[in-house]
Design goal:
alpha+beta; Immunoglobulin-like; TIM Barrel; 2 domains; five-stranded mixed beta sheet; 24% strand; globular
């Protein structure tokens, strides 16, 4: 969660995100009498493009504009301007040759217009596997921390994510709870996350904990009652071995585990989910995945996205995963990336719980939009370890999403906290909290419409 900038505590500016090449009006509003602008005094409003150099050094780049104006009767400044280039812009308000405040807005090109930022996590655990909190509480804690979407992805089990969705279904939450699971099948130690897939991959086998605990009933194996039939381990192994024969797997890569990864990822694709290759540099005795195997996964990419930031804070895991991503980018291999906590405890007593996440730019908070945006590189992975924050993606996405992280999400997160607190009370039996959640539903949509000029 980003710390609220001092200027955002004292002033509101909206909209924050505007299209390029269109005349728009930006409002700057003092938040309290202590921040009020002096009435009838002339102010100089200076607008600086951040990506075109300083105006005194590069005077011919259309990188500066200024307006002289007095405050309106409502105590606000209403600044009409056309922002010509995709960039962050500083809005500096001065009086008596002194700066009162600097605020920021961001102008975006047409392909980003209509894409709202959603913060999410696609990989986390609850007491249904090896996590410390009940899944209903995990969901509440993540909403308190500012998440717009998430999936409980317990080991070998899909049904905890469905239980959580069902529990909160009648409250019309602004938090979207997607189905998910971490897939573990016989003969394969590679960890693949099934985010938002229509049906359980673990539940395809009659030896899985998903099947042992909930059986073959489609209501616990899928979100729509439709899923493939359950098979025996022998049938699964035969399918994977047959698939391996069709793949040109090199001698330095274990054939059955690799073919199992392809089999799993094919099923995730069939279910319209996002197949995530998770933490190859996790130290589980030694690095979990052999280097040759990781390289071959990148070269062939049976998965949809790489978990470049995971929820551990030692350098090797995320540091090496970032460099692996960069190495393959340098080879011309573009790989979609995500950041996830892989949390096993959703409170501050777990130092890793809030250490990674994904910011996704999507037209709406739906499974297809989130998955499609990640595959099309409209997202960044975020790592947040103590006071050190990193974002990773294309440079264009990094610039825009960093602006959002600093200037939009601190305001967004305050709204999320209130909903998350009520979710926890509701999960603990407070029906009045449920009524309040229904009453405040839709506030996040209003916030987005205020700060994003997309209409």
């Amino acid at each position: 969660m980003a710390l609220m900038k001092r200027e955002l505590i004292n002033y509101d500016i909206f909209p924050k995100v505007i299209p390029t090449g269109k005349e728009v009006t930006i409002t700057v509003k003092p938040l309290g009498g202590h921040a009020a602008f002096a009435k009838e005094k002339e102010h100089l409003i200076a607008i600086h493009t951040t990506t075109e150099g300083a105006p005194y050094t590069y005077p011919n780049r259309n990188n500066y504009a200024e307006y002289k104006m007095t405050v309106s009767e409502d105590g606000c400044f209403h600044i009409t301007h056309t922002f010509h280039k995709e960039s962050e812009y500083y809005i500096r308000i001065n009086a008596d040759d002194k700066r009162i405040v600097q605020l920021s807005v961001y102008a975006i090109e047409a392909d980003l217009v209509g894409r709202y930022p959603y913060m999410g996590d696609m990989h986390m655990h609850s007491t249904r596997s090896d996590g410390k909190e009940h899944p209903f509480i995990v969901a509440a804690n993540y909403r308190k921390a500012g998440y717009d979407f998430m999936a409980i992805t317990d080991h070998r089990k899909y049904y905890p994510s469905l239980e959580t969705r069902n529990f909160y279904a009648d409250l019309n939450l602004d938090l979207k709870l997607y189905p998910g699971e971490e897939v573990h099948l016989p003969g394969n130690d590679i960890h693949i996350v099934n985010f938002a897939g229509d049906y359980s991959i673990n539940g395809l086998l009659d030896c899985s904990l998903q099947y042992i605990n909930r059986g073959a009933d489609p209501k616990w194996r899928s979100i729509n009652g439709e899923c493939p039939d359950v098979m025996t381990e022998e049938q699964y192994r035969a399918e994977v071995e047959a698939l391996a024969e069709t793949l040109d797997i090199p001698d330095n890569v274990e054939k059955f585990p690799y073919a199992a990864c392809v089999w799993i990822c094919n099923h995730i694709k069939k279910g319209n989910g996002l197949g995530i290759f998770a933490h190859p540099y996790w130290i589980s005795n030694v690095y979990q995945v052999p280097e040759d195997f990781t390289d071959y996964m990148f070269e062939t990419q049976p998965f949809d996205a790489f978990e470049v930031f995971g929820g551990l804070t030692y350098f090797q895991q995320n540091g090496f995963q970032v460099q692996k991503y960069h190495d393959y980018c340098a080879k011309g291999k573009r790989v979609p990336i995500v950041g996830n906590t892989d949390t096993h405890g959703s409170t501050a007593y777990n130092a890793d719980w809030h250490s990674a996440r994904s910011m996704v730019l999507a037209h709406e908070n739906t499974r297809d939009e989130i998955v499609g945006a990640v595959k099309d590189f409209y997202n960044v992975a975020i790592q947040d370890i103590k006071d050190h924050v990193e974002v990773l993606g294309t440079l264009r996405m990094m610039k825009y999403c960093w602006f959002l992280y600093e200037h939009y999400f601190p305001i967004h997160d305050e709204v999320c906290f209130e909903e998350g607190r009520l979710m926890k009370e509701y999960a603990c039996g407070d029906e009045e909290a449920g009524a309040l959640l229904r009453q405040i539903s839709g506030r996040m949509d209003k916030l987005r419409r205020k700060y994003f000029l997309f209409d």
